[in-house]
């Protein structure tokens, strides 16, 4: 991937250079704000698997345009999460991020937020491949928009969308148009190194009925964590590259075929975490410092290949989408100070006692997944009386988790002359079949009701093999089956041409699955875990006022969550289980205001009260305990002013202030290891941008986290209060410059 992307990018930029100075033949397909407009932009989304104005969608949705993401230099989850009401992150570094919407997170291995790339679900559907933290964090270059759907999406999107869905919508090739863009960025990080990237995209017409679009990027990630023990600086630095190639063939007005290939790879030398005191959360070795006897490199690779056919012969439209996706990860973790025997005996102490010399340990953690998905949908045309769509869905997923526990000699950090102490291999398969549909009946021009349902069934197998110097070789396999029905009801009332009020009742689920256990495991250890489910009640309003200069989007919600999937320890066996109930309730809002020509304000935020409503003994959770990494208050305020600067150039300047409230860490799998949750403090950030642009060129200066805050995004305990933990933080103060040219 690395070589392919670099050579593709170099060739792309080389091919584009002669054209940059020429007259543009077409504008970039990415939606951009029009500084001459005196009304807020109309947004079109595909939240309900059909194109419609955001103003018409009867659910809570946020859409971020590709143009906005480019201007904000928002390239990953961490950059844009604060702009999405109700979206919170738990992240220990690039590629390791857990997404949470409306507070639905209890620390389980399965994801509660589905990630889509256009029509393709990306990531594992089961809890056997760490799907909760291996989210598809795709780069935002050459995107049309990002859509975030809050609340259960089980009817149209199925498994793992019980909290909501995040969709990357790419720009399709444009027929009959030659256009493109190149961009270069450089930045400097306080207390760290320098970073930068080069990016390019070109759209090529192939006659009148076909077009090809290719984009690529190559980015150096600045590091900001030092290791005084090894003498290494910026150990968290890394590299990210990727690209997308898409071919569109439209032989008639009623038929189109799009083939798209996307690849991305991220490599870092270590995690952006310092060693901290678990009680005070203050650094143990100094600001932004960790101590390791070895490096902890990470490697994450995404591949996604999709073929989508749209055919609209008349009374019924047909869509077929076929996807093959691949996820590969490789991580090294230093485990010497991790508690191995509760309450406080570490792995290093156990190994030193066993071998008679100072010995530590590290793990090589690998995860791989191959996934094939097929979906077919039939839909009626738009009607003022009755509309419908039905579909069928199939997926097959093959996964493998492998962990190699190895010994190393202390204090040199050299690999010990020993075979692997323990090797755990967990291959798994997941197959799912589903049928779904919805109908919308318009009682009159102002009031309609949408009903939807989905039936899903899955079959899974898990086979665990254990071997190594310290354990006896063994292998065992467990199957499981499960079926789930989800539904949604959404009445909608158009009060007038500018205001819509809606209600929504919807359900979602995560599939259950097998726990691969040896026959000697006691009966108290569950052989399989069931699906959990959510029921979401929502009431919302969308309105535009003041001749389109004010937009209002507010939703109140209540979510009941039962049979919560948890990662727990039962009679010394680590398994997935079910336990406890929770509820989440609150309010989300987005306001846009254009008070005068060129000046725009956007205010987003959420109040989310998420807690257990019954005990969850498997993770020592008590009724009333807050759900992990779910701030009660979060908000963001952005203001931008554009004006005519000189010639055909407009100037722009903008400021974004974001606030993340207090949160709590994950529940503890054992009371002997971590006594209770840890409260993480709130933090806020300020980002600025300023520059000039016209239809072809843009020059921009930007700054992020200007207050140099140490906002905590992840906390991993060693297992005992006296041994500290790894505390991941946001990137320190960053300043940079971007130059781009379109043609």
* Helical content (DSSP H or I, runs of 4+): under 10%
Q: Please provide the count of β strands.
A: 42
How many distinct helices?
A: 5
Which structural class do you get from the secondary structure elements? mainly beta
Query: Which range does the strand content fall in?
Result: over 45%
Oligomer type: single chain
Unreliable stretches covering 5 or more consecutive residues:
1-36
* N- to C-terminal distance: 28 Å
Would you give an account of this structure?
There is one protein chain. By secondary structure, the protein is mostly beta strands. It has five helices and 42 strands. It has a 22-stranded antiparallel beta barrel. A five-stranded mixed sheet has the order 3-8-9-6-7. 49% of the residues are buried. The N terminus is likely disordered.
How would you describe this structure in keywords?
42 strands; 5% helix; mainly beta; globular; 743 residues; 5 helices
Short précis:
The protein is 5% helix and 56% strand.
Topology:
Blueprint: H1 2-16, E1 44-45, E2 52-53, E3 61-65, H2 66-71, H3 77-80, E4 87-93, E5 96-101, E6 113-117, E7 120-122, E8 143-150, H4 154-157, E9 164-170, E10 179-189, E11 194-205, E12 210-221, E13 238-252, E14 255-268, E15 273-276, E16 298-311, E17 317-334, E18 339-341, E19 345-346, H5 347-355, E20 359-379, E21 386-409, E22 422-442, E23 447-467, E24 474-496, E25 499-510, E26 513-514, E27 528-529, E28 532-545, E29 550-562, E30 565-570, E31 573-578, E32 581-596, E33 599-612, E34 633-646, E35 649-660, E36 663-664, E37 679-680, E38 683-693, E39 697-704, E40 712-717, E41 725-729, E42 734-742
Parallel strand pairs: 6-9
Antiparallel strand pairs: 1-2, 3-8, 4-5, 6-7, 8-9, 10-11, 10-42, 11-12, 12-13, 13-14, 14-16, 15-41, 16-17, 17-20, 18-19, 20-21, 21-22, 22-23, 23-24, 24-25, 25-28, 26-27, 28-29, 29-32, 30-31, 32-33, 33-34, 34-35, 35-38, 36-37, 38-39, 39-42, 40-41
